[in-house]
Design brief:
Rossmann fold, Dehydroquinate synthase-like, alpha domain, 2 domains, six-stranded parallel β-sheet, about 10% strand, globular, binds zinc ion
Length: about 350
């Protein structure tokens, strides 16, 4: 029993993190300080290329690196193949992932498969994948979240992120608030299933959620200061996952609910928005202050009801009954048998979600 808790534990952390204003044009100098890299591939989306990718590319060329770029489309499977093919052909020693969550997940996964490091350059603050070793790739072999590698560095330009729709930042806050229940689920799994539990990682994730809760007004103003809180909290969540060696501190029953919604409806809302609503309901089950969580999300401007998610109440109920089956190894407050339809309906009604 004791041995189980003392297995070798592998942590991979970013070496350098820079959060600031108008810093993308210094990407080249920053990269020089990281080590002896010479060939770089910049991956971005069509829009993020114009707002950020090109600036990073120019800055890398300016300091004399051999750089190529690639813009990827919406289809994740195709995009991953495209990036891998480009890596084989150009043979870079580092990949820059410049974009929102999707582009970062694609570049993270492709660079991991090809065994080269990547640098994360987020253009929005919509979820904690910007700094984590996890990649959400729903269409790759039906895997919801794959463990890959953490970025070796993160360059987060708050001015660029401020220009993304506020809805994305609010969604990022939902993903951070989710740590209130994720950490509870983790502790529960430790107590009931003797699963490894790391106090440091758990508290790091929890601290991010508390900081967002403390700074709601600042965040709602969409100010540089508010955004800095969100970006730093998202990065800390990513680091918490790196320290834990899994997504445990950041993803519990509220994430299972969100993944169930992803399966049940094409009309899905943003990841963090769904997780936020899930957190309200799972907090109710955990008997923690769900009203406070709802009030924080409301103040931030993130959805708190099925209607605000634009998802049918029946789908929400169905997702609640299905959530425990999404990842059976992840023990949560939903238990092994999940919720009955009646219990799910009551839960959604009692918390005002439907
Ligand atoms: Zn998440």
């Amino acid at each position: 029993m004791v041995e189980k808790n003392f297995q070798a534990h592998f942590m991979e952390l970013p070496r350098k993190v820079v959060v600031g204003e108008n810093i993308l044009s210094n990407a080249g100098k920053f990269c020089k300080s990281l080590g002896s890299f010479s060939r770089m591939l910049v991956v971005s989306g069509p829009r993020t290329w114009t707002v950020a990718g090109r600036i990073v590319y120019d800055s890398l060329v300016d300091v004399g690196f051999n750089v190529e770029y690639l813009t990827v489309g919406m289809n994740i499977d195709e995009a991953v193949k495209l990036v891998e093919a480009k890596i084989s052909e150009f043979n870079p020693n580092i990949v820059f992932a410049v974009g929102g969550g999707r582009v970062i997940d694609i570049a993270k996964y492709a660079s991991f498969r090809r065994g080269i490091p990547f640098i994360s350059v987020p253009t929005s603050a919509s979820h904690d994948g910007i700094a984590s070793p996890q990649a959400s790739l729903k269409s790759v072999g039906n895997i919801v979240s794959v463990k890959t590698h953490a970025p070796i560095a993160i360059i987060a330009d708050v001015n660029v992120i401020l220009n993304s729709p506020y809805k994305l930042t609010a969604s990022g806050c939902g993903d951070i608030i989710a740590k209130f229940t994720a950490v509870r689920d983790w502790m529960l799994a430790h107590n009931i299933k003797n699963e490894y539990y790391g106090d440091y990682a758990a508290n790091l994730a929890l601290m991010s959620a508390k900081l967002v809760a403390k700074n709601v007004e600042l965040i709602r103003e969409n100010s540089v200061e508010g955004l800095r809180v969100v970006v730093e909290a998202l990065i800390s969540c990513g680091v918490a996952m790196s320290i834990a060696g899994s997504s445990r501190p950041c993803s519990g029953s509220e994430h299972l609910f969100s993944h169930a919604l992803d399966i049940l409806t094409k009309n899905r809302a943003l990841h963090g928005e769904q997780c936020g609503v899930g957190t309200i309901m799972m907090a109710y089950l955990h008997r923690i202050n769900w009203r406070k969580i709802r009030s924080i999300l409301r103040k931030i401007g993130s959805p708190v009801t099925a209607e605000e998610l634009n998802i049918e109440p029946e789908i929400v109920v169905k997702a609640l009954t299905l959530a425990h089956k999404i990842n059976p190894q992840r023990y949560t407050i939903l238990g092994e048998n999940g919720l009955t339809e009646e219990a799910a309906k009551n839960l959604a009604k009692n918390t005002g979600v439907i």
